[in-house]
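Q: What structure does this chain adopt?
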Amino acid sequence: MGHHNPSHIAADMRAMAALRLDDVLVCTQENDFVWFPGKIRFTPQIAQDHGIRPIALFWGALNLFGGGRSSQFLLEHPEGFQVGRDGSHRPAGCYVNPRCVQRIQEMIDTVAEAGFAGYFVDEPTPLVDCFCASCRAQYAAWGGDDLATADAEQQAAFRRRCVVDYVQKIAGYCKANHPHLETMCCLMPHDRDLWEVVSRVVSLDNLGTDLYWVNQERAVEEAAPLIQEMAALCQKQHKVHHEWLQCWAVQAGREPRIFDQGEVLVRARPDALYVWAWEGQVGTRETCDDPALAWAKACEVLTLAKEV
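A:
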């Protein structure tokens, strides 16, 4: 999750360097841009001093992407909230809204100028229940009539198109204004119908998925075809292919499955293997039941990945 105090940042980076990690994805939250800027200011240089590449991820931005959702921006710009079909308020923001997109772009400017090497679009997913003015206007602009009266198939197609449009806008903005940034995106398994079309976004450099099955009963070997599918799409479109290993919210007794699934991931040889999250996300609401044991299993996987 990162920290604003450089001494704490440096301690984590020393531990990451000892594990021979190459990248660190830093969860920069909206509040870090206002009240805890040390995380953004100090992390890039400290990471680079330890031979680690810093990647920015806006965790919880717009009350949408990832956890830790607490958006001061939406409180100050209530027009950015999602709106239900009946006009009721929704607590999350809408990435179709131009002002929301502008805020994300402003935050990208800040992390790019601070020295981050990449920006990660975290799990964009269709907004199935937003009928705000921006969504209605975008639906009309793309040739539709009334979004609220469109049938289920038309709405689903529109929502998927909005995801692709958002990724294009963000990745394109990065390349136009901060070409040094590697543009990255993770699409969830349940958004598999978006994998192929998002892989064709020219301004996107890096694409992957997160098969978080540790707490499920699914056989870990069933992940292999999905990993191969993502790998093939990335190879075809000349993207870097990444995958995620779960080390968050792991239930007691399921820690061995971290290594079991990690073996499957390592055998698939993605270009990058990331772990969510550092030290089992200890100290957060998404911590593992036994973060030390979970992290030990994740470290075994990281060691294995360096040996193949």
